[in-house]
Amino acid sequence: MFISAMKLLFLFFSGGLLVMVGMGCNGGGGGEFSSFAQAYNRASDGSTVDSSAMQWEATFKDLGTVKKGGEVDIKFSFTNTGEHPIVIDSAFVNCGCTLISIPEAPVMPGKESYIVARYVTREQPTGAFLIRNIYLRANTIGSPYHTLGFKVMLKEN
User: Which backbone phi and psi does 29 adopt, to 5 degrees?
Assistant: First the structure.
């Protein structure tokens, strides 16, 4: 009976988790996307009907050694080199120590914009290189997924 109850609890919580993840992915409960972002449709190859191209200045930055205790802002610049506006409709990081700011409005063709990552060093370990990643999804040709990253070593004050 104990195993059956454990299986039931596992199935219950697994199903609950899937429902919550599903709700977060479609905009319900996970924040509202702009009407522009909701309007484009994904094609079978992962691109969108109004896909555009994005050229990054750099997708990875080495910050070297930084004193622990403060915050560091890292700017990732890009240019819309395509024919349609670029919309970054979702973004997340692999660590709660990193906050991100993305453009709220579509980035028009030929225009530059940027993503800013703010790395909060206070609770991070020292003495080893740390790598943090930022994951984005946009209406770009080829793949809608983009990964940005940075490497840093923290030292005590």
Answer: 85, -10
Model pTM above 0.90: no
- How do residues 99-152 score in pLDDT, each as one tens digit? 999 999 999 999 999 999 999 999 899 988 999 999 999 999 989 999 999 999
The continuous run of DSSP H or E covering 148 comes out as strand 145-155
25-48 burial: b if 16+ Cβ within 10 Å, else e? eeeeeeeeeeeebeebeeeeeebb
CA distance 152 to 92: 19
Alpha-carbon distance of 62 to 151, in angstroms, equals: 5
Q: Are 90 and 81 in contact (CB under 8 A)?
A: no
112-120 and 88-93 beta bridge pairing = unpaired
